Amino acid sequence: MKLNKKHSPEQLGLTKHMELARADGIPAGEVVIPALLCGAVGTVFSSILYLVGIYDGLGQALQDKYVGEPYLMQGDYALHDGWNFILLVVMCFGISFAVLDSDMVWRRVMLFLLAIVVVVLCSPVMMMWDIFWSPVMVIIGLLWSWFCAFIYSVQHIMPCERLVPMRVAQPVKLAKEHQVKPSKVKNETPHASVLVNQPED
Fold it and tell me: Which residue of 26, 150, 187, 192 is most buried, as measured by CB atoms within 10 A?
């Protein structure tokens, strides 16, 4: 089937980001499936490290810091492990979808920094309520999911990076005082008067 060049890309069912990917040789990316994979990788990776006991030393050191000065946390109530896994799943899948659905590298980096700051600051806020929570597991999963999604977004043209159609330039309308009225052109050719010296008889 031959494609008519007069047809627009929308009529042919082609999206702008697919045209850009073909022109630059970079494959067109997707959002849903890669985001699910990146979120699952970060969740599973951090969960395995938690079950093995890699985070126990960091969690105990953070709790000792909160109990001592200047924090002086009262009580030893810790957040249930189930909430850790819920927060881990939400943050890992959330950062994956957010990164893959955002254009520009600096925006993807800012999303990661924003998420890390929010997670880290939640621990001292809960400490003021005498609730201990170690954010290490969530931070590791968040970091790994963001890294996978960031690498994928750099190597592909994402749907949010599709080309913006160019607008046709419109003629500039001048104000009435600046408008120049076209002069009337006479079709008649002016006759030049020529004086001829006739010899006198």
Answer: 150
Distance CA 55, CA 46 (A): 10
- Residue found under tokens 């004086």: 195
- Under a CB-based contact definition with an 8 Å cutoff, are residues 116 and 29 in contact? no
Backbone angles phi, psi at 20, to 5 degrees: -65, -40
Q: How many residues does the chain have?
A: 201
CA distances from 44 to 11, 50, 92, 93, 97 (A): 43, 10, 10, 12, 17
Tokens for 104, please give them: 């520009």
Q: Is-contact 29 75, C-beta < 8 A?
A: no
The string of pLDDT tens digits covering residues 22-62 is: 456 778 888 999 999 999 999 999 999 999 989 888 888 88
DSSP code of 104?
Answer: S
Decide: helix, strand or coil at residue 57: helix
> Which tokens in the block code for residue 115?
């998420």
Higher confidence at residue 74 or residue 37? 37
Q: Which residues pair with 78 in a beta bridge?
A: 132
Indicate the SS3 state at residue 31: coil
Tokens coding 166:
């160019």
pLDDT of residue 26: 77
